[in-house]
Input
Amino acid sequence: MENIKAPRGVRDILPDESWKWASIFDVTRKIAEDFGYREVHLPIFEQTELFSRGIGETTDVVEKEMYTFSDRSGRSLTLRPEATASMVRAYLEHGMASGPQPSKLWCAGPMMRYERPQKGRYRQFWQLDFEAIGSSSPLVDVEVIALSLEIFRRLGLSNLEVLVNSVGCPVCRPVYRSALQAYLGGHFESLCPTCQGRYDRNPLRILDCKVPTCRSITDGAPDVRDHLCEECRVHFDEVLKGLALIGAKFRIDKRLVRGLDYYTKTAYEVLSGDLGAQNAVCGGGRYDNLAEAIGGPHTPGVGFAAGLDRIVLTMEQQGLGFGKEPSIFATVVIADEGARDEGLRLLYELRKAGVPTDMDASGKGMKAQMKAAGAAKAAYVCLLGSSEVVKGVVALKEMSTGTQAEIERDRIVAELVLKAGAARC
Ligand code: HAM
Output
């Protein structure tokens, strides 16, 4: 029988990588605290309607990429392809509108999309998702963008480009849509087949097509900024002013329309110059009509999601450090069977005292135990034989220098607590 493997586009995050993820979570959690965002944990599947109505029936995500299935009672459920719709659903379901506004929430977790896997694009990928729900102030757009940039700054990422645009609102977008269609109609035959299909259903998406002929056509397309209504124009100006004020570097990109239908006004993306084709490390924007689309009252909101897999790839590409890889600090090594019970006692005393410690459980010889301690990168080995047990001492070996000293059994835990504390600083 063939071995069962993980499904295509889905990968295991093994210990050599997962500690890097943990260090990114630590940084993110601290920034969330600094900006006043509180963490939530949301379900990984939802009613399909949440996404089809929230994200939009004509988007690639809803049309082609959702993992949708019927459960045993025939309900249509979907593995979440993103977190924003779930976050707004949770906000409405739990009456968060009655609390301080905006509700500033964040979550981290896997998202699922049936996309063609390639470097930086997976069918299960992780997002760090931040949402500020319940405010229409442009200052909140600025805060959200600034928060994402702060994550990248603290992680040390460079070679990033921040693109910003406004996609208007239901008042001005139809006007722009018509102007765009009128322009693209004159070039319809030269558009790629995908964009020809988008012409009626979702013409704004033609703006971010990567096919060179489409790109040269859209170079001359009307700019959304010339079609914004007064409210959207003022909002966008305030966002740009706020970003300039806090010293954020960005470029206005008229092609930036984003792939999800819920966006209104601000849209933005952060691109990494080190990722190749799948270069967006973060995307977000305002979604003032999403709550209504899923059956709630009008509730403005703005947020972003950063792709964790792509952040790690960029950091590795740029040779950045992830902090200190956690490792065992001490290993208890038994010279003979007469010392096993005492060794076991010492192991648990050290663990209880917060010193990361390990000990062989399979009866390996002393040489093999020492080798394992080296492989585990233990800083110290506590050597115990029957003679040490009788004398009431432990032979403490410092692995980096090879020096060994006898320490009284009564003092060994305190000694290692001190050393482990110093090593942490
Ligand atoms: P999105 O642009 O679809 O936006 O995804 C956000 C980020 O998730 C991308 O910039 C990328 O880093 C990562 N990502 C997306 N798809 C994949 C994939 N297949 N493999 C690896 N990484 C991927 C959203 O999801 C919106 N919910 C963002 C948002 C939050 N807007 C407002 N609030």
